[in-house]
Design brief:
The protein has about 220 residues and is mainly alpha-helical. It has 3 domains: about 40 residues; about 30 residues; about 120 residues, no CATH class. It has a two-stranded antiparallel ribbon. α5 runs antiparallel to α7 and α5 runs parallel beside α8. It is rod-shaped, with a radius of gyration of 54 Å. The termini are far apart.
């Protein structure tokens, strides 16, 4: 069976030959269908049809795996960078934290208000230095006296307790060679701290060596 395109081509060829024959008085020769079939069998009109573009292919599983690994590596790098930044920040805060900020074994922050309650685990030196820098001489006298109590307890000369008073410590020191000096410093401390006789710079400068000398005579722990 002949294809429609071939029939149409044959029809046009027949019309052309007819027109040529009419003009040139040529005799039209009929072509047998079998001969025409053989002559036109090599013609292919399908090549004139435009080819369709192939549909876009979806990403393969290998592409998704590579993308996932890339994202995972990036997130890991960001996590490490964030951890390093937090560590550096923590070290910076620790180095720049106030030196008089101390924590008890129970996790309580030691301040000037509760320092005497935690005397056995408190480093008084930073508090004393802060008082001297602020020229708060009454507070400096109190801190010197608390340092004396702490060192006497550390040297085994008295037994420190939060419930004890200065009278109790004087009684424990009564037979020691430093008893008289300790009694004099205790009286001075009570006048300043409890008697509101805050010393000025000169009065404190005159009295400070006595506290320092007494501290130097206490036997070490």
């Amino acid at each position: 069976m002949m294809y429609p395109a071939r029939l149409f081509t044959a029809f046009l060829l027949w019309l052309t030959l007819g027109a040529v024959a009419a003009q040139s008085d040529l005799t039209l020769r009929r072509i047998a269908p079998a001969d025409w079939e053989r002559a036109s069998s090599g013609l292919d009109y399908h090549k004139d049809v435009p080819k369709k573009s192939p549909p876009p292919t979806a990403p393969s599983s290998r592409d998704w795996t590579q993308q996932t690994e890339t994202i995972g590596n990036l997130l890991q790098i960001l996590a490490v960078a964030a951890a390093i930044a937090l560590l550096i920040y923590g070290i910076f805060r620790m180095l720049n934290a106030p030196q008089n900020r101390q924590i008890t074994r129970a996790g309580e922050v030691i301040t000037l208000e509760n320092l005497e309650q935690h005397l056995d685990e408190t480093d008084i030196a930073p508090f004393l230095q802060a008082a001297l820098n602020a020229q708060n001489y009454a507070l400096a006298v109190r801190l010197y006296y608390l340092q004396i109590i702490k060192n006497l307890a550390g040297g085994g000369l008295i037994r420190w307790s939060k419930e004890k008073t200065n009278r109790d410590y004087l009684h424990e020191m009564r037979a020691h060679r430093l008893s008289n000096e300790f009694r004099g410093l205790t009286a001075h401390y009570e006048r300043v701290w409890y008697g509101n006789q805050s010393p000025d710079a000169q009065a404190f400068a005159d009295m400070e060596p006595a506290y320092q000398q007494f501290l130097s005579q206490i036997p070490p722990a």
